[in-house]
Every structure is written in C-alpha cells, then in structure tokens.
Amino acid sequence: MAGGGDSFRALLRAANALLQQRRYHAALAVIKGFRNGAVYGAKIRAPHALVMTFLFKSGSLREKLKSIAQATYAHSRNLAYFVFTYKGLLAAQSRLQGKKIPFHSFLAACIGGWLVFGDNNPINSQIIMYLLSRILFGLSRLAVEKGFIPQPKQDPFPLVAALVWGTVLWLFEYHRQTLQPSLQASMTYLYEDSEVWHDLSDFLVYNKRTDSK
C-alpha cells in the first residue's frame, strides 16, 4: 500500500515538473484550453437548457432531461474543440513566423469557426448571435476610440434600445419565421399567451389550462 502511495506521489511530482517546463507551454496551453472550453460550455448551456426546456418544451421528464443533456454536451464539445483548434493554430503560426501578430488571431479563429461552428444548428446559431451582438458593440466602441466616428455628445444606448426592441417586435408580429425558434417561443409566451385566459387559474397561476374544460 505504501509503495503504491509513493509511486503516485512520484508521478504527481513528475507531472508538476512537466507543467513547469517552458518549452511545453504552448502545447499544454492548448490542452488546458480544451479543458476550459468543455467546462465553460457546460456551465453556460446547462442552466439555459434547463430553463428553456421546462418552460417551453413538452414531453416526459426523461425526454426533457435527455434534451438538456444533449444541448449541454453539444455546447461543451463545440467550445472545447474550438478553443483547442484556435490555440493550436495560434501557436503554430507564431512558431512558423517567429512572433505573434494580430492577424494570427483572426485567421486561427476564422478556421476554427468554420470547422467547429459551421454547421447551422440551434446551438451554433445561438452562440453566433450572442457573439454578433457583442461584436457590433465592440466595433462601435473601437470606431470611437480610433476616431473613425466622433464621440457621441449623449449616451446613444437609449436610441439603440429603442431601435432593437422596435425591430424585433416588428419582426415577431409580421415576419416571425425570420427569428430563431427559442426567441419565437419566448415572445409567444410574453406577447401572445398573455392575451388568452379562461379563469383565475390561467390568469394568475398558470400560463395555460391543462384540463379539457
């Protein structure tokens, strides 16, 4: 028993020593990136899938849990693959060129995005839309920082909020098929289901009656 413990401690010391080796840093960063991508994807997707599934999806408890697990796995896997691909390509470019330049990040992420997130499915679609909204905000701020557009005299956020909500509700009312299914479900719950009730039970307690009355 003691011999087994000593062997484990020796193995642990060897692993820790390996992790301190600078020459392996790039490869180890790729591996840890894969790990962090998998963990972060699961942390992000599991609560979202749990809420959306139990709010809007029908079916048995087993079917709902299976749906949550599948969505969580897909998000976790894709993010892990992307981080692994991105960091690997970044390290390869830096090694080949002898230094890191901004274009390396763009090219590595483009290739990773194409390979990992190129399939048009609900999970990838949500991730891309999440990123797109933040890109637009980021590019707007960068344009101001670089002097391409003047610094606004007043906070433009109220105008942005008005335009975003005006556009999305117009699309929901008149071109609903253009919106993502989960957004359609959310808006149906908020703006259409609130138009229908029969008595106090489905006015305050439930959204919809479950009996046949």
What keywords describe this structure?
3 domains, 213 residues, single chain, mainly alpha, 8 helices
What does it look like?
The chain has helices spanning 2-19, 25-56, 61-97, 102-117, 122-145, 157-174, 181-192, 201-205. Helix content is 76%, strand content 0%. It has 213 residues and is mainly alpha-helical. The mean pLDDT is 90. The chain contains 8 helices and no strands. The chain has 3 domains: 14-118, no CATH class; 126-151; 154-196, no CATH class. α2 (25-56) packs antiparallel against α3 and α3 (61-97) packs antiparallel against α4. One of its GO terms (cellular component) is peroxisomal membrane. This is PXMP4 protein. Pfam families: Tim17. InterPro entries: Pmp4.
- The low-confidence runs, each spanning 5 or more residues with pLDDT under 50, are none
Q: How much is the radius of gyration in Å?
A: 24 Å
Report the count of strand segments: 0
Q: Major beta sheet, specifics? A: none
Strand content: under 5%
- Helices, by number, come to 8
Number of domains: 3
Helix content: over 70%
Query: Can you write the helix and strand succession as a string?
Result: HHHHHHHH
What shape does the CA trace take? flat
Head-to-tail CA distance between termini: 69 Å
Instruction: Assign the structural class, choosing from mainly alpha, mainly beta, alpha/beta, alpha+beta, or little secondary structure.
Output: mainly alpha
Protein name: PXMP4 protein
Pfam family, one: Tim17
Organism: Pomatorhinus ruficollis (streak-breasted scimitar babbler)
